[in-house]
Amino acid sequence: MTAENRLFITLDEITGLRFECAHCHAKLTILMNNAFPSSLLTCMNCRKPWFEGEHDSRVKVIGLFVTAFNQLKQLELKPPVDLEISNSVVFDHASNGKD
Ligand SMILES: [Zn+2]
Q: What are phi and psi for residue 66, nearest 5 degrees?
């Protein structure tokens, strides 16, 4: 018998987006209920640019994602919508996990 473990999280459990600097690996989390901060354009630790200014299409997409996510939460959908985490663990009970 093979069982598949799946992980689901509710929309309320998503609280922020975490960014990690590719240069110094400093991490910054912005809250989902806040507007996209202009301080995110450069690393707060090493000052390397993360984006090419406020008109960088990636900045716009991130802002649109946060706006759409917050709108989705406010819909109070019935039935409720959960998010599934893709890194599910597959466990084979027949082998007792000794693969
Ligand atoms: Zn950095």
A: -65, -45
Closest CA to 27 of 43, 4, 39, 47: 43
The upper half-sphere exposure of residue 4, i.e. CA atoms within 13 Å in the direction of its Cβ, equals 7
- pLDDT band of residue 57 (cuts 50, 70, 90) is very high
Amino acid symbol at 39: S
Average pLDDT, integer, range 73-96 = 71
Ligand 1 centroid–CA 21 distance in Å is 5
Position 86 scores a pLDDT of 76
22 CA from centroid of ligand 1 (Å) = 7
The reported pLDDT for the residue numbered 87 is: 67
| Strand, coil or helix: 29 | strand
User: What are the CA-CA distances from residue 94 to residues 1, 13, 89, 91 (Å)?
Assistant: 6, 34, 15, 9
User: Cβ contacts of residue 49 below 8 Å, gap of 6+?
Assistant: 41, 42, 43
